[in-house]
Amino acid sequence: DEHAELIVLRRGSYNEATNRVKWQPEEVVTQAQLEGHRSMNPCPLYDKQTKTLFLFFIAVPGRVSEHHQLHTKVNVTRLCCVSSTDHGRTWSPIQDLTETTIGSTHQEWATFAVGPGHCLQLRNPAGSLLVPAYAYRKLHPAQKPTPFAFCFISLDHGHTWKLGNFVAENSLECQVAEVGTGAQRMVYLNARSFLGARVQAQSPNDGLDFQDNRVVSKLVEPPHGCHGSVVAFHNPISKPHALDTWLLYTHPTDSRNRTNLGVYLNQMPLDPTAWSEPTLLAMGICAYSDLQNMGQGPDGSPQFGCLYESGNYEEIIFLIFTLKQAFPTVFDAQ
């Protein structure tokens, strides 16, 4: 992490006939840098209503590490954003949102980060925007800073941002998904932890407050945890009493090492015991991943893209799979 420098992007065009993505050359997002700082934890967020693509990230001075900030309890991390109205071909100048969004609370944290990975626009009337994040809070002078997940929230399409309230302690890098409809709508949060398994929480008020914090024993973590990704998608099977939203989650499946990337399915999204056994997407060393719903696949079931770190952090791989490929028995049961 200390050797990160810049954020790069590659634009791909998906060909439905061949079911492949043709990637363009890598580009540096030159606007996404603060002078004297390195840019980390890219978090893209697309506002469908204003057709604006936001790219959130953190900026950290020089080679200052997260460990150093936790040791000194001096927070030098900045919250930054650039935006684009032409799907990332051109970008706005950088915005440092630290003072306007976090303010004096910044001094109460030893450090913080966003994401990494995709963010979320809600289906509520405001089209609220959520950026998942976590902060190491300095709760007691004699204790180490403690990590808590939360969301940055915008109710006005990204013009202003505020802090949501914290999930329970021992929750770090996280992602959010919207499940249910109408009065039953919830924001589901799934976070990395040091507890040997993921933690989850749910928000009944659009990411402001989280409750029902649970350890998800079926979703194992390696010793220091690892980032994982979660997306919601429409239930493709019309069974009586079936919930209309399902969840998909990717993460290394080994409780001892960051190896063997798996995908898990939950057909009862708020029930932590309802996660399936994983289907392996890739064998060998793997780490962070990010999922994206790509609509209906060629076999008629929902299709997903997964971007993940492979090898010894030397390669980033993009793969496409359908729900029917990953979980054929779900459809065979029909």
UniProtKB/TrEMBL annotation:
Class of enzymatic activity (EC top level): hydrolase
Reactions mediated catalytically: Hydrolysis of alpha-(2->3)-, alpha-(2->6)-, alpha-(2->8)- glycosidic linkages of terminal sialic acid residues in oligosaccharides, glycoproteins, glycolipids, colominic acid and synthetic substrates
GO biological process annotation, one example: lipid catabolic process
GO terms of molecular function: exo-alpha-sialidase activity
SUPFAM superfamilies the UniProt entry points to: Sialidases (SSF50939)
UniProt keyword terms in alphabetical order: Carbohydrate metabolism, Glycosidase, Hydrolase, Lipid degradation, Lipid metabolism
KW Lipid metabolism (keyword) present: yes
Record's signal peptide: none
Classification via InterPro entries: Sialidase (IPR011040), Sialidase_fam (IPR026856), Sialidase_sf (IPR036278)
Ranges of residues in domain Sialidase: 17-297
Family that this chain belongs to: Belongs to the glycosyl hydrolase 33 family.
Name of the protein in question: exo-alpha-sialidase
Organism name: Mus musculus
This protein's encoding gene: Neu2
